[in-house]
TrEMBL record:
Assembly and interaction partners: Heterohexamer of two alpha and four beta subunits.
Location relative to the cell: Cytoplasm
Official protein name in the record: Prefoldin subunit alpha
GO cellular component, one term: cytoplasm
Entry annotated with the keyword Amino-acid biosynthesis: no
Region forming the signal peptide: none
Source organism (scientific name): Methanoculleus palmolei
Length: 149
């Protein structure tokens, strides 16, 4: 086998590092997408529960594991964040439908990001194989050079 080119090894290592960083960033994005999906799903369940509760009393988390019992004055409407810190008032059923659509969009986005992560992992694995082969080639060349002296 020909002696491994140090520039090739350096380039492969650089690509491997870049892929690792990209995978880390996409994994963080995937985690944020999943958190948003869970929050939207919790909002759907809460809005539905408020609609089904005849007295309108719910538990409001105030932090530190503490809750207040509060009475919802208007169970027929909810404020929904539509992005850029803008919230609009919607009928409860419309708010549930909006959140369900958001969950669907987040699930699709999560699948797309997960696919990108999988693709990058495959490419990183291939580069790792090539890098391993280059290192083996360099070791063999070094051993052959030592044995020939």
């Amino acid at each position: 086998m020909d002696q491994a080119d140090p520039r090739e090894i350096q380039t492969l290592q650089m690509y491997l590092n870049e892929y690792g960083q990209q995978i880390e960033i996409l994994t963080q994005q995937l985690s944020m997408i999943e958190q948003q999906r869970l929050e939207a799903a919790a909002g759907i369940e809460t809005l539905k529960a408020v609609q089904e509760n005849p007295d309108g009393v719910v538990l409001l988390p105030v932090g530190g594991g503490a809750f207040l019992r509060v009475k919802v004055l208007d169970t027929g409407h909810a404020l929904v964040n539509i992005g850029a810190d803008v919230s609009v008032e919607r009928a409860a059923a419309s708010a549930v439908a909006y959140l369900e659509d958001r969950v669907t969009e987040l699930e699709a986005l999560g699948k797309k990001v997960a696919g990108s992560v999988e693709q990058l992992q495959g490419q990183a694995t291939e580069i790792s194989r090539r890098l391993e082969a280059a290192y083996r080639g360099a070791r063999q060349a070094a051993q052959a050079g030592q044995g020939g002296s």
